[in-house]
Amino acid sequence: MGDNPMKAFVMNGIGETGFAEKEEPQAGPNDAVVKPTKGLVCTSDVHTLHGAIGERENLTLGHETVGVVEEVGENVEEFEPGDRVAVGAITPDWGSAAAQDGHPSQSKEPLGGWKFANVKDGTFAEYVHVNEADANMARIPEDVTDEEAVYITDMMSTGFMGAEHAEIPVGGTVAVFAQGPVGLMATKGAELQGAGRIIAVESVPKRQELAREYGADEIVNFEEGDPVEQIHDLTDGEGVDSAIEALGTSGTFEQCVKVTKAGGTVSNIGYHGEGEHVNIPREEWGVGMAEIDIATGLCPGGRLRLERLLRLIENGRVDPTHMTTHEFGFDEIDEAFRLMETKEDGIIKPLILFD
Ligand code: ZN
């Protein structure tokens, strides 16, 4: 590897995309090079393209991928060429101070584990470089398809983290704001965590239907009235034990605080890509003394977590593929981006086929 040109789908300044020729990556001693077979486009790719993390030139986009190992460095022990693997969207530096302190996703700086399509080329290319391969990818079991496995790289890991951070008591009540793919996986995660009642906030019928499939007991349609009032009505004015923010707007974040009862938890997994501030409603937050915790997190990485998520698929606990609404060849990826931006044609997740 390393001497031949390959094709990559890149960002060329804010809002501009195109295909570029790049050199194939090489594996350092601890790294791997993977040839993608399937990928998913993420709403955060669209945020990146529109400048959420600043201007980028000739940066390969994408961070959700599965593929086949092409090359491994001399220190890699867990993998060999030919292995079918899922690559974490977040690929931490496991020796970093933040990792040693229990926050691997943050690595050397805040969000430092987020490398693909941020500080290094992403995964929408013919070959992908994976740092610290033993810790940042997982072998896909025989019974799990590539299409299933690609959902663990970000959607399941992030969505389930939303439920894990929400401190849901067994039998407790949960509200999940927004049922995009991450919100849907937060709903499923809440079910797996033992929630007794799950209220999903969503207006799009197809997403409402999937929310029910993934464990929602009730749907609150914000187009039919204030969701805070509706949730208070549903809970006899009590509010919920846990609220999960899966949209990334200050408005929904405020609503999450307003529906959470004293002692409860607001778990944020929304990507707040716009605006100057995210506001906490002072009174409903009990003037800072109602013991309403606010948890945040970036998609957890790591081979062991990826393996646990694969186990859930392997044993039929979750089928994420119902979120795949569209398929595109790698050559047609521009159209997938366009649809993710406009959200037209009922799109939830577009699967990108590399082979
Ligand atoms: Zn993503």
What's the helix count?
11
The proportion of residues forming helix, as a percent range, comes to 25-40%
Number of strands: 16
CA(first)-CA(last) distance = 19 Å
CATH architecture of the largest domain: Alpha-Beta Complex
Radius of gyration: 20 Å
Largest sheet: 7 strands, mixed
Q: Name the beta content range.
A: 25-35%
**The CATH topology of the largest domain:** Quinone Oxidoreductase, Chain A, domain 1
Give the C-level CATH assignment of the largest domain.
Alpha Beta
| Domain unit count | 2
Weakly predicted, low-confidence segments: none
Please tell me about this protein's structure.
- With 355 residues, the chain is α/β, with parallel strands linked by helices.
- It has 2 domains: 5-154 and 299-353, Medium-chain alcohol dehydrogenases, catalytic domain (Quinone Oxidoreductase, Chain A, domain 1), CATH 3.90.180.10; 157-296, Rossmann fold.
- 26% of the residues lie in helices and 25% in strands.
- The chain has helices spanning 43-49, 97-100, 133-136, 146-149, 155-165, 181-192, 205-213, 227-234, 250-259, 303-314, 333-342, and strands spanning 5-12, 17-23, 32-40, 57-60, 64-72, 84-87, 128-130, 137-139, 173-177, 197-201, 218-220, 240-245, 260-268, 293-296, 324-329, 349-353.
- The strands form 3 sheets. Strands 3, 5, 6, 7, 8, 15 and 16 form a 7-stranded mixed β-sheet that branches. It has a 6-stranded parallel β-sheet with strand order 11-10-9-12-13-14, with helices on both faces. Strands 2-1-4 form a 3-stranded antiparallel β-sheet, with no helix packed on it.
- Strand 10, helix 7 and strand 11 (218-220) form a beta-alpha-beta unit.
- The longest helix is centred in the middle third of the chain and has 12 residues, at 181-192.
- The radius of gyration is 20 Å and the shape is globular.
- Residues 42, 44, 63-64, 89, 154 line the site of zinc ion.
